[in-house]
Amino acid sequence: MAWLDKERTYAASGFNRWLVPPAALAIHLCIGMAYGFSVFWLPLSKMVGIPCAKNTPIWTELFATQCDWRVSSLGWTFTLFFIFLGSAAALFGGWLEHAGPRKAGVVAAFCWAGGLLISAWGIAVHQLWLIWLGSGVIGGIGLGLGYISPVSTLVKWFPDRRGMATGMAIMGFGGGAMIGSPLAVFLMNHFGRGASSPGVWQTFVVLGIVYFLFMMGGALGYRVPAPDWRPHGWVPLARGHNVMITQGHVHVKEALKTPQFWLIWMVLTMNVSAGIGILGMSSPLLQEIFAGKLIGADTVFNALTPDQKKAIAVVAGGFTGLLSLFNIMGRFFWASLSDRIGRKTTYAIFFMVGIVLYSSATTLGHMGHLALFVLAFCIILSMYGGSFATVPAYLADIFGTQMVGAIHGRLLTAWSTAGILGPVVVNYLREANLAAGVPTAQLYDKTMTYLVAMLVLGLLCNLLVRPVNPKHFMSEGELEQERRLAHEKALTQTTTAQQGANGMVPSSSALKLVLAWAVVSVPLMWGIMVTLGKAWGLFR
Length: 540
Hints:
- The structure is a single chain.
- This protein is mainly α.
- The chain has helices at 20-31, 41-44, 58-61, 71-74, 76-99, 101-124, 128-148, 151-157, 162-191, 200-221, 252-255, 259-280, 282-290, 306-341, 343-366, 370-399, 404-411, 413-435, 445-463, 476-485, 493-497, 510-535.
- Helix 12 (259-280) crosses helix 18, helix 12 (259-280) runs antiparallel to helix 19 and helix 18 packs antiparallel against helix 19 (445-463).
- It starts with 19 loop residues before the first helix and ends in a 5-residue tail after the last helix.
- Mean pLDDT is 86; it is low at 491-507.
């Protein structure tokens, strides 16, 4: 399949670079459904009608057909997502640099969509191990490849706006659940025929087909620029203007030997651990702190009636949706802002503002300030999303652009670590406080202290980041060899001469640009409207 080769993906002289972000968004909006998988857990846990015994070993439950799966067992799929996302990104990041984003995007489409189809089979025959294998393992590999596939390409197409470009793409990963979750609920309602047949496997099949088509469209839309391509009229800033932006290139293997890589690894781990811990517990956190106040009743959580608990759960669902929206917006806002104020400064803001908000959040809750409490967590989640979107540009500044995709892939092991560390800390402390008899409204006071400690550690690591020692840069010969391995073409005078203002080429395909953006923006706007509708219940 020569049409997948990187040599076939080089942009012609009339190519408009603004066609690349919607291609990346098409992939990220699909794989972002990983955040929305919790909508399947309750329907899947009631299909048989006979719960598995509490002492059933997990390895027995993997093959059980005569009892219902536990939600905690299904939830391991979510953990597998991020373990294999980080592992695949780390293992295949170097291959992606040589094979190109199109081939990586196509493989991601087959893995993510194929994983959903395998999971559908597992649901139909009631085999949990097939769900873990399909969505968790194979789908997780698709997540990793799909996530990093556009990073290096976007950084090279937008050397003048690195943060904004990666923010636009990675915004889609945060937005995928806003589209996928309500769509999945609609499909389950359409296909469902009662508790024993909730329509989940049919939903997985439909989503697998739709996501495959979208991801293939995105992958085939990728184009890469020639080496050292620059937008017309743009001149890189001299090193003295911003010492944190390197003029050299560091090989991925050499990057792992630098303190800068591990400092940024810790920066991402600490910020994401704190954020993902809150994201995973956002619904119970709001319900247990505010309890009856969410529905106008001055009642503690444990004194609520079953109907009242259902009512506040609906309100808390709106809170979770609002956090997801700020997670998305933060990815674009903070990454774009980092182009102006620098990546190191942006992360310093994340940590310093985060320390203040995490420290004061539960106090705001105890004082009954719902609006301020919600605002605090919306800002926190915007910085959580902004952390993901800003880090590729941070790496490009520190290590150069030649192998930024591979370096970013290795760095995403921080996400895998945070995906375990954050929820474990939050869940363990909550259970420990419950066992100790702590009042429900105060369950998270000590938790916030631990999360603040994580942010302090992340802030210190960020302050220690310095420019890379030039001894780590590739020599001219090593850089030329790497470019040969990456099948890179030389920049031609014709290509340079035909660039239009702001790096865009005058093109007759304006309709193509409008359609490309419409394909990704219309479903995204639909997801935003649905989320805002649910969030409105917080303040009615």
